Amino acid sequence: MAKRHAPVGSRNTYAFDPESRLADDGDPVDVLVLMDEPAFASCLPQCRLIGVIDDEQTDGKKKTRNDRLVAVEEDNHSYAAIRHIDDLGKAFVRELEEFFVNYHELTGKRFQILDVSGPKEARRRVEAGRRKARKQA
Q1: Quick one: which of 4, 8, 121, 130 has the fewest CB in 10 Å?
Q2: Where are the beta strands (DSSP E) in the chain?
Q3: pTM attached to this predicted model
Q4: In contact, 74 and 45? CB cutoff 8 Å
Q5: Quick one: which of 67, 2, 80, 94 has its CA closest to 35?
Q6: Which domain holds residue 50?
Q7: What is the pLDDT of residue 3?
Q8: Domain with 112 in it: what CATH number?
Q9: Most distant CA pair in the chain: distance in Å?
């Protein structure tokens, strides 16, 4: 894992394969992994996809899509029954939105959720990224 983006004990994000550039914004694919405990650098949890959050970031006049896959770590207890992002409930999805809005605000960017889709769309995005990677190789 190359880069840490959040403090210990918070929702943390890592750049796992920064050279892959599989996402539409030219960055590695962003995955929000829900788990019982915070992860640590070099940890590679086994996960199941439950959905995708389509979003748009605005930095000045430049708008960029920076969609995030949402997954659940397989061996957790808190999210064991979650199979679809809708299972988290609207309040939890709003909490995620607030997290991302505040996170991006710290860097001077605006953030807006455009849509939320389930695991079928998340898997479709992963497969599209794999096809793109094979073409680039």
Answers
A1: 8
A2: 3-4, 14-15, 30-34, 47-59, 62-65, 68-73, 110-117
A3: 0.80
A4: yes
A5: 80
A6: 3-129
A7: 39
A8: 3.90.80.10
A9: 43
